[in-house]
Structures are given as structure tokens and as C-alpha cells.
Backbone:
């Protein structure tokens, strides 16, 4: 059977129209531009391609982009779980406001987040002054990049873990307790395994989002080549030098990585739904 | 709730056991306080303070500077352009979101999982890459650059490019809100409506649309917030010509790089207000959706 052909004919109308329109729109807005990117990359010979994507400056930018994204996603994994736990299990004044505020990084434009975080963590900023006194440079360093990426990624972990945690049945914990498990054992052996797929999904989402992030990082990083230059910024620099093929080559590398991550996330989500369905 | 049940059942001589069970399924008070404290500190540091500093810096030089910053011609033009881009991008993506979620949720077909993955793609693709792609299509040395130039049509460094980049970045948001909800709702209700003689369009308008309205509204406000705040993709395609192709986020960047911090934060405060409004509307919609859901469950159990 051909791709996108219907199985088990439905009585509902509009299959051809809705699917046809979706695929047409998707092709126009996403496929066509992305194929332009990949085809542009093919204008380079393999040696030229390699020279662009494996240059010292590019490798330094990958190290910063992936290192900071990984660190930020790990910080979000720990604190996102903690925040989700506190929001689901405990009650305290102002909880609903905080719960709503968790989505702020989704809703706040990245440029606004970028200048706000820079103002906070600059050497004379509200928080930066304490780090400055301790001799730690936050803004205009890799630490600042990580701070911005933590901000951007936080809702992904909280919002994937929260619904699963809400559905973990209290009876299971009571059963564990009545069988003699202490609280830590119950958490490690009963609750944590149920949360694991959603934690991993949230982690991967935060990581994927962080890799491509531009707006918030560009203000706080200082943009020093080889030191605080992220890959999206390097692409921007190539574009400003009218080196379109070079920019496309770097873009293709990032695109392949993003797409692989996305496939991984979908697999994780599939696993998560499966596991989650199994618990019920 | 189970704690209450346990307490009432095991009253009297068994209350010691209940106490023990409660201890076993909850953390000690000191740990609760400690965990809540850490979470609050983290959220204050990473969410609350950035929000507070935007408004603090915006009014640092007083009301007059604030008002002047948001009413100067360049700022006003940036606001208009941002509103225009969102006004085009959001309806396009609503139509796509409705179509895609109808096809995905109501029918079984091969390649469905692939389609869902592809819809998510713009979330994972760096905005800079999105902008770059449009540059390669419409830019002076792009696929159609020469043709556009010959016909005196401007896409890059002009409003159409900004709209296209915004559509690309924001297109998953409506579809992502609708697909899981519509999948969960299944298609029995639509099938019943058709059996009773409703036309396809009537079924969609009178059966499907009312049951997805809150999720649809939420998708729209989220899509709108992202459309107005988009920075990376738009900064590649806009050319940043003041009073011509500057959106609000780009205007903020220019002001900031010119060390006009109070003005940059003043324009930022408008976008921060939009973000806060988005969060308030989101909470209100969730509350309404939960109420409708409870009402439906009550009616069903009354039958």
C-alpha cells in the first residue's frame, strides 16, 4: 500500500481534503526550504564541506553548543523533577501562580529573556555582582550560555513529568510501604521507574531545544569566536560574509542532529505512553 | 485523599497504624519544607527575577522615558509590523492545525507517525537555520532570487520574508494542541452525527469544534505569543531596516546594542506583558476545560 493511503475506510468525510492540504502546506513551508538547505550543501565538494564543518572554529562552537546544552538539560532534569514533585505533591501559598509561571520560557520572547538574563548576571547585575565578588564570570562566558539554556529548557522537563506524576497511583506506594519499604526505597523502586520514560523525554526535548537556541544566548554569551560562539551564531556570521554554502553546510549538520533527536524523542514518547498505559 | 480514608477507617485503636502508614507514604515535614524551599529558590532565580528585572529596568529612568521609548516612530512601526506578521501567520497555522489534526485523529493511514514527527520539526530546528533556508530560496543568489528581482518582487529583507519565517517557526503549535485531544476523543460522536443526517461541514462545526474549542484557543494564544516574539529566524530574513523591516524583538536588539537599555527594556516590557497575558489566558482556559470535562462526566453518570 502506498504511503499516506487510508486503511479501514472511515465513514467520516474530508480525509483527502484535510490530509492533502496538510501535506501540501507542510511541503511548501517545511520541505521546500529544508531541501534548499541540503541541496545548497551539495554545491560543495566533500573536501570543502569537511573544511567548513570540521574547522577549528566550527568544532569549538559544537563543543560549546553541545556541552552547554547537555549541562543545561541535566540541570533541568534534576530541578525539573524537583519542581514537578513539589507542584504535584505539596501545597503551599502561591502554588497555582508558580505552576502557571513554569510556562514563562515558552511564552516570553527569547530576545527579552536574553537581555533580562544578561542584565541579571552581568558583573554589576543583581545576581552577577555576587558571582563577580567570588571571581566567577557568568555573563559573557560559557556559564552564561548554560544559564540561558536552563531557562529555555525548564518547562520541557516539568511539563512532561508533571502529568505522569499526577497519575502515579498512591495505592502502589501504600503497597510498597506495607511491604516494609522505607520512603527512599519506595521512591527509587516504585515512583522513579514509572517517571523514567517521561524524564528522558523531557531531557531530550530540553536538549534538542537548547542546541538550536539563538535569541537568548546571543546576548549573554559575548560571542567571542573559539570561546563563547555557539553554532547558530557561527551560521549567522557565515551568512553575513555571504558564504551561503558554508552556512548551509553547518546548517545541514545541525539539521541532521536535530532530526535524529526528534526521532529519538518520538520513540521515547511511544515507550512512555506504552509504559504509562501499562501502569493503569 | 486516600490518607483521609485511611484515617477514618482506622480510627481509634488503629490510629497509630494509620500514622505509620502516612509516614510511609509521605516525606517527613523537614524534607517537604526543604524540597519546597529549593524549588522556590530555583524558580525565583530562573523565572521570577528575569521577569522582575524587565519591568524594573524599563521604568529605571521614569515614566516619561518609558512612554517616549514605546511611542517613538521606530518603536511604533516595529509594533505594527509584529502585529501584522502575527495576524497573517496565526490564521494560516490555525487552518493547517485543524486540517492536520482532523486527518491524523479521525483516520487510520500509513505514514501517520512520520507526519506527526515532521509537524514537530520546526520546534527542533534552530530558528537561524529556518531563516537561512528562506534566504537560499528567495535571497538575491537563491533559487528564485533572480526571477523575483526581474519582476520587482521583494521577499527577503521585506515583509513577506518576515511572515514566511514566522509561519515556519509557529506552525506546530496549534496542531500539537489539537492532535492528542482529538485522538483521545475518537470519532464516535462524528459518526453519530453523520448517521443522524448531518452534513460533513455541519458535523465539524456543531460536533467537533465545540469539543475542541478550549484546546484550539490555547493553541492560538501560544502560536500568537511565539509569532510575536520570534527572533532568530526573523533576524536572518529581515535585514533589520529601521521603520521598514524591524519587528519588536529586532528593535529591542538594536536598542540594546546601542546601549539604550531603558528603551530596550521598555519595548521588552510590552512583550513580557504579552507573555504574562498568555499565561493567564492559558490557566483560565485549562480551568474552563476542566470544568466542562467535570460537567460532562456528571451528566454521563446521571444518565
Residues:
Amino acid at each position: 500500500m502506498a504511503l499516506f493511503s487510508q486503511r479501514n475506510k472511515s465513514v467520516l468525510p474530508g480525509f483527502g481534503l484535510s490530509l492533502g492540504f496538510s501535506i501540501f502546506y507542510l511541503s511548501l513551508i517545511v520541505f521546500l526550504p529544508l531541501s534548499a538547505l541540503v541541496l545548497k550543501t551539495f554545491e560543495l565538494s566533500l573536501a570543502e564541506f569537511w573544511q567548513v564543518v570540521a574547522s577549528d572554529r566550527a568544532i569549538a562552537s559544537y563543543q560549546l553548543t553541545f556541552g552547554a546544552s547537555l549541562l543545561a538539560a541535566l540541570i533541568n532534569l534534576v530541578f525539573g523533577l524537583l519542581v514537578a514533585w513539589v507542584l504535584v505533591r505539596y501545597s503551599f501559598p502561591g502554588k497555582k501562580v508558580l505552576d502557571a509561571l513554569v510556562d514563562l520560557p515558552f511564552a516570553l520572547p527569547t530576545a527579552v529573556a536574553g537581555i533580562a538574563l544578561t542584565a541579571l548576571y552581568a558583573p554589576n547585575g543583581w545576581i552577577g555582582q555576587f558571582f563577580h565578588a567570588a571571581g566567577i564570570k557568568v555573563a559573557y562566558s560559557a556559564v552564561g550560555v548554560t544559564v540561558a539554556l536552563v531557562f529555555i529548557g525548564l518547562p520541557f522537563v516539568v511539563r512532561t513529568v508533571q502529568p505522569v506524576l499526577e497519575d502515579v497511583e498512591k495505592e502502589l506506594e501504600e503497597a510498597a510501604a506495607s511491604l516494609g519499604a522505607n520512603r527512599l526505597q519506595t521512591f527509587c523502586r516504585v515512583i522513579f521507574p514509572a517517571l523514567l520514560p517521561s524524564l528522558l523525554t523531557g531531557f531530550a526535548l530540553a536538549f534538542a531545544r537548547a542546541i538550536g537556541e539563538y535569541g537568548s544566548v546571543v546576548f549573554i554569551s559575548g560571542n567571542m569566536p573559539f570561546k563563547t560562539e555557539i553554532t547558530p551564531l557561527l551560521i549567522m556570521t557565515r551568512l553575513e560574509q555571504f558564504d551561503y554554502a558554508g552556512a548551509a553546510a553547518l546548517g545541514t549538520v545541525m539539521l541532521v542532529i536535530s532530526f535524529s533527536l526528534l526521532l529519538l524523542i518520538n520513540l521515547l514518547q511511544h515507550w512512555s505512553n506504552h509504559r504509562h498505559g501499562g501502569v493503569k | 485523599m486516600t490518607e483521609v480514608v485511611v484515617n477514618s477507617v482506622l480510627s481509634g485503636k488503629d490510629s497509630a497504624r494509620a500514622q505509620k502508614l502516612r509516614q510511609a507514604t509521605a516525606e517527613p515535614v523537614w524534607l517537604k519544607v526543604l524540597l519546597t524551599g529549593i524549588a522556590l529558590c530555583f524558580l525565583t532565580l530562573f523565572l521570577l527575577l528575569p521577569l522582575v528585572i524587565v519591568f524594573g529596568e524599563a521604568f529605571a529612568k521614569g515614566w516619561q522615558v518609558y512612554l517616549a521609548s514605546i511611542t517613538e516612530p521606530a518603536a511604533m512601526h516595529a509594533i505594527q509590523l509584529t502585529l501584522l506578521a502575527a495576524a497573517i501567520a496565526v490564521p494560516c497555522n490555525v487552518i493547517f492545525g485543524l486540517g492536520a489534526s482532523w486527518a491524523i485523529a479521525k483516520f487510520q493511514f500509513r505514514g501517520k507517525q512520520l507526519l506527526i514527527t515532521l509537524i514537530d520539526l520546526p520546534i527542533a530546528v534552530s530558528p537561524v537555520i529556518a531563516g537561512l533556508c528562506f534566504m537560499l530560496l528567495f535571497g538575491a543568489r537563491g533559487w528564485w532570487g533572480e526571477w523575483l528581482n526581474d519582476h520587482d518582487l521583494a521577499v527577503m529583507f521585506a515583509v513577506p520574508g518576515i511572515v514566511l519565517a514566522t509561519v515556519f517557526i509557529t506552525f506546530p503549535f496549534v496542531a500539537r494542541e489539537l492532535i492528542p485531544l482529538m485522538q483521545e476523543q475518537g470519532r464516535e460522536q462524528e459518526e453519530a452525527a453523520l448517521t443522524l443526517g448531518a452534513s460533513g461541514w455541519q458535523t465539524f462545526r456543531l460536533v467537533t469544534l465545540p469539543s475542541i474549542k478550549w484546546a484550539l484557543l490555547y493553541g492560538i494564544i501560544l502560536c500568537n505569543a511565539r509569532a510575536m516574539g520570534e527572533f532568530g529566524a526573523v533576524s536572518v530574513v529581515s535585514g533589520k531596516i529601521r521603520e521598514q523591516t524591524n519587528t519588536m524583538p529586532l528593535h529591542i536588539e538594536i536598542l540594546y546594542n546601542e546601549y539604550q537599555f531603558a528603551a530596550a527594556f521598555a519595548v521588552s516590557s510590552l512583550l513580557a506583558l504579552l507573555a504574562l497575558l498568555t499565561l493567564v489566558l492559558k490557566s483560565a482556559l485549562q480551568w474552563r476545560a476542566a470544568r466542562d470535562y467535570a460537567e460532562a462526566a456528571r451528566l454521563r453518570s446521571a444518565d
In short: Chain B touches chain A through 106 residues (CB under 8 Å). Chain B has a mean pLDDT of 88.
